[in-house]
Amino acid sequence: MSFIGRIRRALPTPARLKQIPGFGWLGNFLARRPWLLAISRRRVARGIGVGLAVGVIPLPTQMLMAALCAVPFRANVGAAVAATWITNPLTAGPIWALSGWFGSFLVETSIAEAWEMTQAAAAELDEILPWWDVAREWVLAIGKPVLVGLPITGLVLGFTAWGLVSALWAFEVRRRRGLRLRARSVAALRQPQN
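Given the sequence above, the corresponding C-alpha cells read:
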C-alpha cells in the first residue's frame, strides 16, 4: 500500500468521530465539510502552508488556530495541525532569529545593535541587579524586530512550503505514472503475439 493510502486509512472518518464521546460535534462538522480531511495535492499543500504560517507565531493555541485558519482556505486540517509542530525547542531559536532578521528591515533597531548594546553593558556588570536591567533592555530592543518579523517569517515559510509540497507531489505523481506506463509497455512486449 502506498504512503498516501496508509494515511487515508489512519485518518478518522466523520462517522468514527461521531462515535467517540466528546467528538460528536467534530464528526457532524466534518460530515458537512468533507474537503477538510481530503488528501489531495492542493488541499494538503494549503494545509501545510497554513500550519507553518500560524505555527511560527508563539501562541499557546497554535494547533487550534491552524485548524480554524484551514477552514476558510479549504485546506486539509490534519496537515495544518501537523505543520504547527515545526516550532519546538530545537527550531524556536533559528525561527526567531530569522524573524528578527526580517523584522530588522522594517524596524529602526537592528539585532546587531541590540547585541552590541548587551555585550557592552554586560562587560560593566558588577552585581546581579544591573544584569536584570541589561536583560530587560536587550529583550525590549530585540523584541520589536522579532515581533514584527514573526508574521513575515510565517508567510514566507507558509508560501515556500505550499510551493514545495505542490511541486514534490506533482513530481511524484508524474514519476509513478511513468513507472506504470513503462511496466505496461514491458508487459505488452513480453506477451506472445498470435
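The first helix runs from residue 3 to 10. Try to locate this feature in the C-alpha cell string yourself.
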